[in-house]
Amino acid sequence: MTRSTTGPGAAPEGAAPPPATGPRVVVSGAGVRYGDLTVFDGIDLTIQDREIVSIVGPSGCGKTTLLRSVDGLTRLNSGSVTIDGRPVEGPTPGVSMVFQHFGLFPWKNVYNNVAYGLKLAKAPKERIAEVVPEYIDMVGLAGFEKSYPHQLSGGMQQRAGLARALAVEPQVLLMDEPFSAIDAQTREVLQFELLRIWETRPIAMMFVTHSIEEAVLMGDRVVVLKGRPSHIHEVIDVGIPHPRTRATLKSARFQEVTAHVWDLLMQDVIAAEREVG
């Protein structure tokens, strides 16, 4: 693995620096295999509090599997994951995941979908009544509390999924290609909405995506997975300060990092697509 030397992006203006209590998430020597297939092996990675780490790599390299391992949904065959120093052995309090295909309950309206995690955690009714409207409003769904998923656009459904994940006030937010199932214009809107929310309440975030541009826009660091089994080929410090805006997409640093990641992955992506075809 190689690591670039450029410093990471600055913290959001006015935000306190990350606490010096050690990393929020530590992945050490992690490996997963299914039968004779080893998906990834020897993964070492740390995520600090108030840091967004993007994960990119060719199809089939184990990006989602790595995320599910951090969430405790997939068991490692080797190595370990700890969150705040505690081993992950199953779904962990303080960790929320936003899935690619929304994951909303079709028989629940927006309010009850957003409230689901809090109810599961047996939060008091008063707390639910206070928190749920706050997060519905935060993601721009005020007025749609009684609407059901089939009455919402794809972007609105993903906003509801994000509100549900945030309502439990996690320390770690895991994003599994959250915007890949929606149109390009809505995707860009939601990217900046998520950054706006994170800049207001920064937490540790892992963001898996197939889009290199999205990885660079969202991440303070970009982790590039390559190989069979996959491993961390390089970790790139993006070096773009917050807050990020549409002007970020035109900056020289954004173009530089995007081109570098593409150079690392181009041949692997082409090979993976040929195998799928």
Summarize the structure in short.
The chain is globular and about 50 Å long.
Question: Can you walk through the features of this model?
Answer:
The chain is α/β, with parallel strands linked by helices and 277 residues long. The protein has 2 domains: 189 residues, P-loop containing nucleotide triphosphate hydrolases (Rossmann fold), CATH 3.40.50; 67 residues, no CATH class. It is built from 7 helices and 11 strands. The strands form 2 sheets. A 7-stranded mixed sheet has the order 1-11-10-4-9-8-7, sandwiched between helices. It is globular. The protein starts with a strand and ends with a helix. The N terminus is likely disordered.
Rg: 18 Å
Within the CATH hierarchy, at the fold level, what is the topology of the largest domain? Answer: Rossmann fold
Strand neighbour order, sheet with most strands = 1-11-10-4-9-8-7
Query: Tell me, what's the shape?
Result: globular
Fourth-tier CATH superfamily name of the largest domain:
P-loop containing nucleotide triphosphate hydrolases
If classified by CATH, what would the architecture of the largest domain be? 3-Layer(aba) Sandwich
- Outline the low-pLDDT stretches: 1-20
Q: Under the CATH scheme, which class of the largest domain? A: Alpha Beta
Furnish the topology, listing elements before pairings.
Layout: E1 2-3, E2 25-34, E3 37-47, E4 52-56, H1 63-71, E5 78-83, E6 86-87, E7 95-98, H2 110-120, H3 125-138, H4 154-167, E8 172-176, H5 184-200, E9 204-208, H6 212-218, E10 221-226, E11 231-237, H7 252-276
Parallel strand pairs: 1-11, 4-9, 4-10, 7-8, 8-9
Antiparallel strand pairs: 2-3, 2-5, 5-6, 10-11
Helix pairs in contact: 2-3, 2-4, 3-4, 6-7
